[in-house]
Amino acid sequence: MDDFSVLGTDPSLSAQKGAGESQGYDLTAEEKAWLADVYGKLTVKMRAETQRIGTMIPYSTGEDGKYHDLSKPGGLYFWTNGFWPGMLWQMYNATGEELYRQTAEGVEDRMKEILTGFEGLDHDIGFLFLPMSVANYRKTGNEAAKTRGLHAANLLAGRFNPVGKYIRAWNNAPWTGNEVSGWMIIDCIMNIPLLYWAAKECNDPRFQHIAIAHAKTAQKYIVRPDGSCNHILIFNSETGEFLNNPGGQGYGSGSSWSRGQSWAVYGFSLSYRHTGDESFLATAKQCAHYCISNLAVNGWLPLVDYRAPGEPVKYDSTAGMITAAGLLELSNHVGAYEKPLYVRAALNILRACEAKFCDWDPDHDSIVGGGTFFYHDPTGKDTHVPIIYGDYYFIEAIMKLMDKELFIW
Ligand code: GLY
Fold it and tell me: Is this model's pTM higher than 0.90 or not?
């Protein structure tokens, strides 16, 4: 029998960095120069934008190139409202400028009343409170912000279906015409870090048990053997029996919605970070390799769906930004010989998207254009537009590469 034990002797094959350590992305001088240029433009643009829009709660710029406060249905409850404060906390962490801290606190002050509601809150409560209140608490130690984060975590945990072992997605989904108590979606893999955080803060593993159970269900039913993902799963909410996987925001059932893919790359990497369960690392890699292959044959520009007709060409830059941030997270959990694959892929995506989609004019709101909310957009209003979470994950990825990130997830 062959002796492969020599494979285990080189620490570069398995070395891992811990959370909070400098991650050593080993960038070239040319890459560092690109980053410095982007960081310079980012600081100018974000300062101007913050002074201009302040505690507005933005989503997408309209035809006039301006943000409009709460322009999405759902008002204060809309799932993307945590990303503007998240951008501000990243900028405060990197620059120390008080403008960013004060503005982020002002947004949270407007947003905090949503915790007195119930119907408007769903599985996306992690997207609302991690980049806002938990970020605030992590950076400043603000106890009221911590309490808000813990209330949010309890609401998320309360959505767990113990028979089906999944966190229920929406409260209602009128566009489906269906009853949705048995629905879970891939996006929630990015919400469960709120539970990992709460488990540590409360020294109570119940939150962690729920997060792990949900992640295992996602692993089993959402991720296909080739690393592509379903968006939506339907279970019988009484018996827990798996019923169906209809199409969602991508092209259709069996396709591969790129933002869902990006949530999987980042979310399973985080589940590994928080639990040390090697199967989550393997799943994150499986999804990452699928995304990298698809991006590499398309100039590193993310299509809305990786398994859709070639025409019309529809991009979603937000999927690229999330994938890049996720690949950088993943790169911190692999050995030195494996790391460059993920770092180089992340840089390729960021650079291709920056060249094609970024608007650095400080007089215009929003940075990254080319975002698409869903594939079948009948009006075209949500296609190839700037979307706030594209900007958030772009900033987060840049901060990661510059060792200036405030860890939020
Ligand atoms: N609900 C999260 C997304 O649209 O990606």
Answer: yes
